[in-house]
Specification:
Chain B: It comes from Virgisporangium aliadipatigenens. Chain B: InterPro entries: WD40/YVTN_repeat-like_dom_sf. Chain B: This is WD40 repeat domain-containing protein. The complex is a heterodimer of chains A (174) and B (452). Chain A is mainly alpha-helical. Helix content of chain A is 74%, strand content 0%. Chain A folds into two domains: 76 residues, no CATH class; 85 residues, Arc Repressor Mutant, subunit A (Orthogonal Bundle). With 452 residues, chain B is α+β, with helices and mostly antiparallel strands. Among the domains of chain B are: 43 residues; 129 residues, no CATH class. Helices cover 17% and strands 31% of the residues of chain B. The chains are: A mainly alpha (174), B alpha+beta (452).
Chain lengths: 174, 452
């Protein structure tokens, strides 16, 4: 009975955590994958992993975020996404968008899809979650230098595939 | 929206609402438990399969007594490195024993390459083949195991030890005699282990062992192991000596130091001739015939001058064992390109000898390219090969009671030396395993730190 009570308490704690944090996880997952379906799948995977280890987790939030980022850049997940994408020799023509265009976020979404999974993860951590370079390196399990170079490359790539975002990039670089 | 941060936050708001199944927690925990249980069950199942396989594998001993006819195998095969050890899984008595020297499986090369999982340091192992089937096993004894097989194939004489191939156990250790002891016709010579290695050879009938200790010849009765006589031969030198006792044990011929001498049972010198071992060599284990003739090899066409022991042409001839004078003998075929020849037995006037052939390159055993049992038939033009060892065989011995019985080749049984396989695996796997363990432990610790 005591065990059952403890188990019930653990389950309640997990469900409370899910209710409170799933929305935030979904936003991060969407930025990481650029795809609603993949984002859902990624969040559910991370929450399942957390549930399996729930009794041993000191910081569930940190664990789930780490799973989100590491799974998002894992090679097999990237491969699955590639299958649904059509690769072309040249980027498709883009319509002209001014800086004040309300569809600028669509341009960004499109541009993020053209980055590598790691570059996207670095940008999300640095500019969406406002993580420092060292925090980003620690979460992704890479070196500080890698984070710096990935950030630089990601922003350069953004400028190339979406010149409309140049101003935003420049501010970010600053 | 004025910067990348703001733009990303706006974009993130388009994220879908993720449905979370109400039973996710319960299902996840249950699936984890199932996976763990399945993993443990899989490990246990694999372990059980391995253990069952080891226990249930066909055991050569089970079919030992249901084998075929005794005989020499039609052909000898090269054996794999993991061939079973006769000590652990005996198949003796043996029909044949052969060795590729240091290249024989489970040899410990000279002063290095000592294999920690083997007992003792044996530089040259040997391989035996059972009498009634093609079951091969490795035998290791002393520094060099050799091929001095008793006529019935049951015992192996190796560096002073008599090994019972049927059980894998030592039956006798030849012990040296005190230096002051000359000879003991009463058979009461006390055994004495002076720490000197005593080498020996079977007599043709297998009833005695002739051992040599410096300038003493020791006759040991078999199977009693009693020292029959110790004969002192002052001119005898330990190098290049050939000694054999007559079938009635009344005369001993000793070839040493360029002297060929006959002694009677009392140790009295009967005759002596000065002969070079380049020109004449006592014919081997069966040098004596029951009629009192002593067979020797006349050696001609020796080559490789100034390089020690020379390969050459060997031809049997006979001497009177009582006087040492040449007597009539049939015309035996010459054996060419031979390094060593050892007559093991006779069938009438037909001699059976083991011949080590050479490649003429240098002067040592390392140049023996092959060894074969040959039949020397009077009047024949060339020796007739009865059984040849695999390429590179340096030593060959046969159970001489089988020289006229050849059985067809059967399914080879090499057994398996688990210690050899395990030892090699551990030796080669230890370093990578340590490195891998360190890496795995480091990764686990790192991951745990991050998770918490």
């Amino acid at each position: 009975m005591v065990d059952a009570g403890m188990s019930g308490g653990m389950r309640d704690g997990f469900e409370e955590f899910v209710r409170a944090r799933t929305g935030a996880f979904a936003r991060t997952a969407y930025l990481l994958t650029g795809d609603r379906q993949h984002a859902e799948e990624l969040v559910q995977t991370a929450l399942t992993a957390a549930a399996e280890r729930w009794t041993r987790l000191d910081d569930p939030e940190r664990y789930v975020r780490r799973v989100l980022y590491t799974r998002a850049v894992s090679w097999w997940r990237v491969r699955r996404r590639w299958r649904s994408e059509v690769l072309t020799d040249a980027p498709p023509e883009r319509r002209a968008v001014s800086r004040d265009d309300p569809d600028l976020r669509i341009v960004l979404a499109d541009a993020l899809k053209r980055l590598t999974a790691k570059q996207r993860a670095v940008l999300v951590l640095r500019f969406y979650e406002d993580r420092s370079e060292s925090e980003t390196a620690e979460i992704l399990g890479v070196g500080l230098g890698t984070v710096k170079s990935q950030t630089r490359d990601a922003l350069r790539r953004l400028r190339a595939v979406a010149p409309e975002l140049a101003d935003e990039n420049e501010e970010a670089m600053r | 929206m004025t910067d990348l941060r703001g733009l990303m936050r706006e974009l993130a708001e388009e994220a879908p609402a993720v449905p979370v199944p109400p039973d996710l927690y319960v299902n996840a925990r249950r699936n984890r438990r199932r996976r763990r249980t399945a993993a443990v069950a899989a490990v246990l199942a694999i372990a059980a399969l391995v253990v069952t396989g080891l226990i249930a594998r066909p055991h050569p001993q089970a079919e030992r007594f249901g084998g075929g006819e005794d005989g020499l195998p039609e052909r000898l095969l090269s054996v794999p490195a993991s061939t079973g050890a006769n000590g652990a899984d005996p198949v003796g008595p043996a029909a044949v024993i052969f060795s590729l020297g240091e290249d024989n499986p489970q040899s410990d090369h000279e002063d290095f390459g000592f294999a920690w999982w083997r007992g003792g340091h044996t530089v040259e192992s040997s391989t035996i083949v059972a009498r009634d089937r093609d079951a091969y096993r490795i035998v290791r004894a002393g520094y060099s195991t050799g091929a001095e097989l008793s006529p019935d194939g049951r015992y192996l004489l190796s560096e002073g030890r008599v090994l019972d191939l049927a059980t894998g156990d030592d039956r006798l250790k030849l012990r040296t005699v005190p230096p002051e002891q000359s000879w003991a016709p009463d058979g009461e010579t006390p055994p004495y282990d002076g720490g000197v290695q005593l080498y020996g050879r079977w007599t043709e009938d297998g009833r005695r062992i002739v051992a040599v200790q410096d300038d003493r010849v020791v006759l040991v009765s078999w199977p009693s192991g009693q020292v029959e006589r110790v004969l002192r031969t002052p001119q005898q030198r330990p190098v290049d000596q050939h000694v054999m006792v007559s079938p009635d044990a009344r005369t001993v011929v000793v070839q040493s130091n360029n002297l060929l001498r006959g002694y009677d049972v009392g140790g009295t010198l009967s005759w002596s001739q000065e002969v070079s071992t380049d020109a004449l060599v006592v014919a081997g284990r069966a040098a004596w015939r029951p009629d009192g003739r002593l067979f020797v090899f006349d050696r001609t066409d020796t080559v490789c001058d100034l390089c020690g022991w020379k390969p050459g042409t060997w031809r049997l001839s006979a001497r009177d064992g009582a006087t040492g004078e040449r007597v009539a003998a049939p015309d035996y075929p010459a054996i060419r390109d031979a390094m060593y020849v050892n007559v093991l037995t006779w069938r009438g006037d037909v001699a059976y000898a083991v011949v080590s052939y050479t490649n003429h390159r240098t002067d040592d055993l390392v140049d023996v390219t092959g060894t074969a049992l040959v039949r020397l038939r009077p009047g024949a033009a060339v020796p007739e090969v009865v059984l040849a060892g695999p390429e590179g065989t340096r030593y060959l011995g046969v159970a001489t009671d089988l020289v006229e019985r050849i059985r067809p080749l059967g399914e080879p049984d090499f057994g398996h030396n688990s210690a050899e396989t395990l030892g090699l695996a551990v030796t080669w796997g230890t370093c990578p395993a340590i490195v891998l363990s360190v890496v795995v432990v480091a990764l686990i610790l790192r991951r745990r730190r991050r998770v918490r």
